[in-house]
Amino acid sequence: xxxxxxxxxxxxxxxxxxxxxxxxxxxxxxxxxxxxxxxxxxxxxxxxxxxxxxxxxxxxxxxxxxxxxxxxxxxxxxxxxxxxxxxxxxxxxxxxxxxxxxxxxxxxxxxxxxxxxxxxxxxxxxxxxxxxxxxxxxxxxxxxxxxxxxxxxxxxxxxxxxxxxxxxxxxxxxxxxxxxxxxxxxxxxxxx
Length: 192
Fold this sequence. Notes:
two-stranded parallel sheet
């Protein structure tokens, strides 16, 4: 009897959805969108974050996706309040001191919202006297609310956070609440 094929799902987690299947009051959870038994998120996105979430039925695969020792890059588009200076971007690139310890260095650059995300509900607050800027950040860690904490630590509060890529898998083509089956053999194909 052959082993069942490992499932790997890409899901576009909408804003204000909890990364769990169990109910939590009146908040939406993954169970409102995904009806596949025995599948669990490989990593998390916080309630106020959006974007790519990988789910699998294979615990070892989930561990490989989330364990920082594998250095699987996770890329985010981050809308921040203000216009980052080169010094602020350099702080992000070198690593930022958080309460518990220093983060690993990351890639950070000013960009434009390359993926036309639908307007968020409720919308991002707009201030006529304060600009906002999109930053692309790529990290290999996965600390709790890490990207938000990093931008805040350098004086750039996060307004909107969208994970657009994990390893070679992207959010491209997925609308909020949509999912697609993936080929898990691509996940670590070119990494050492």
